[in-house]
Amino acid sequence: QESVYRAGVFGRTPAVPTDFATLEARAEKASSATAWAYVAGGAGEGRTMRRNRAAFDSWSIVPRMAHGNTTRDLSVDLLGTTLPAPVLLAPIGAGALMSPDSDVKIARGAAAHGVTYVFSNQGCNPMEECAAAMGDSPRWVQLYWSTDEDLVDSMIARAEAIGAGALVVTLDTTLLGWRPMDLNLGSLPFSQGIGIAQYTSDPRFTEIVRERIANAPKQASEVTLGAIRTLISMTRNHPGSFGANLRSPEPRAAVETFLDIYSNPGLSWEHLATLRERTRLPVVLKGILHPDDARKAFDSGVDAIVVSNHGGRQVDNAIASLDALVTIREAVGADPTVLLDSGIRTGADVFTALALGADAVLLGRPYMYGLALAGEQGVAEVVANVIAELDLTMALSGTADLAAITRDLLVRDSAR
Ligand code: FNR
Question: How far does residue 92's CA lie from ligand 1's centre (Å)?
Answer without folding.
Answer: 5
